[in-house]
Design goal:
Layout lengths: L2 E6 L16 E2 L2 E2 H11 L4 E6 L3 H8 L4 E4 L6 H6 L2 H5 L5 E6 L7 H13 L4 E7 L8 E5 L2 E6 L6 H4 L3 E10 H8 L15 H8 L4 E5 L12 H21 L3 E2 L6 E2 L4 E2 L4 E2 L4 E3 L3 E2 L4 E2 L3 E4 L2 E2 L4 E2 L2 E4 L2 E2 L4 E2 L3 E3 L4 E2 L4 E2 L3 E4 L2 E2 L4 E2 L3 E4 L1 E3 L4 E2 L4 E3 L9 E3 L4 E2 L4 E3 L2 E3 L4 E2 L4 E2 L8 E2 L11 H5 L5
Parallel strand pairs: 1-4, 1-6, 4-5, 7-11, 12-15, 13-16, 14-17, 15-18, 16-19, 18-21, 19-22, 20-23, 21-24, 22-25, 23-26, 24-27, 25-28, 26-29, 27-30, 28-31, 29-32, 30-33, 32-35, 33-36, 34-37, 35-38, 36-39, 37-40, 39-41
Antiparallel strand pairs: 2-3, 6-10, 7-10, 8-9
Length: about 450
Amino acid sequence: MNKAVILAGGQGKRMKADMPKPLFKVLGEPMLEWVISACERAEIGDICVVKGFMGEMIDEYLGGRYRTVLQAERLGTGHAVMQAVPFLKEDESGNTLVLCGDAPFIDESTIKNSLEYHCANNNAVTVITAELENPHGYGRIIRTEKGISGIVEQKDASEEQKKIREVNSGAYWFRTADLIKLLDKITCENAQKEYYLTDTISIAISEGKNAGAYTSENPDIIKGANDRKDLLNLNTYARMAVIEKHLINGVEFTCTDGVIIERNVEIGTGTEIMAGTVLRGGTKIGNNCKIGPNVIAENCKTGDDVIINTAQIYDSEIESGVEIGPFVHIRPDSIIKKGAKIGDFVEIKNSVIGEKTAVAHLVYIGDSDVGRKVNIGAGTVTVNYDGIEKSRCVIGDKCFIGCNTNLIAPLKLGKAVYTAAGTTVTRDISDYALVIDRGVMKVKEGYTIRKFKSQL
């Protein structure tokens, strides 16, 4: 079985934060998750994550999905992989991929193609490389007719070697059995007193084993983050790459200012995404929609021909032909049915809004089931919480809810019920009824003359 060891022990001091560097996010996901998901897509499910600084945060994030091992001291990349030897020894028959947890752009095809090359050439170790226009600062790959002879770091490279554009990405394939033996032979006899994983290459070659290099077609696998500026650059690159993908698929962007679309979001053709739109998680947008400006949608699904302007929507479903906004908050577990209109300053929570229902403005609908072709007047509130329990309201088809109506849950309004403006409803109402609650209006004539006589 093929395995992966992901090195995620970096502290990232230049990030100036008390968290492991691989947990810093690119487009809303930790860099570590980008690396894990690339492995999963390449059908490598046996993964071990090497943690270090504040490793409990790595454990908490993974939630038991994959094994972790602790590198208690930071003694180099070779030392980090040594911590995973018990994991490697569980099955030595296959190959092991070593990856950096803070290099998020490793991709499925690079993993699969490099493994194919590794096996076809019977290599003990295969370095995954990239060709860069400006290779300054990276270790150069020294190739031979039979493979490679080693990796030369920038500070040790000759002028001729510095011209080499092929560089080490920090990712490697090893035959697992060879990796275990090679790790046992590397030493820390160097200026930094660290165990370097790259030393395994020269040891393998000295023992007559094959060592090769596979050049990825994706040079971005080299990109990482050492500080906040690098992290911003990663986010900017990833953001524009996602936008470019959607442009190719027929999505319209007239302006990309403030537009952030996470990589798992799906958008249908003909849809227009306007400035300030943030689409997160597993959001799916239908065809021919207009989203924005200033929309946040997280884990939401919309149908076709939906218009959303200046709204925040979370974990909810918006069916086709719905118009929403501006200044709308749709909270989790809500469904807005076909053709409904949700106007300005409306909040909806854990509710179903029926087909062609209008919730025009200044309304709170919580824990409610609203029928078809209902009109909800301004100032309406479903009073769903008594301080102890949440209760539901049911509003039948074709009801007309007058302005400033309070619906005290639990209650049910039948079909085509009308409520007069200012009414507070405290019990179930049968079909076709009119509910009026005016109380007793008192008028005190001349009141303001007496109260403010010195000012009139």
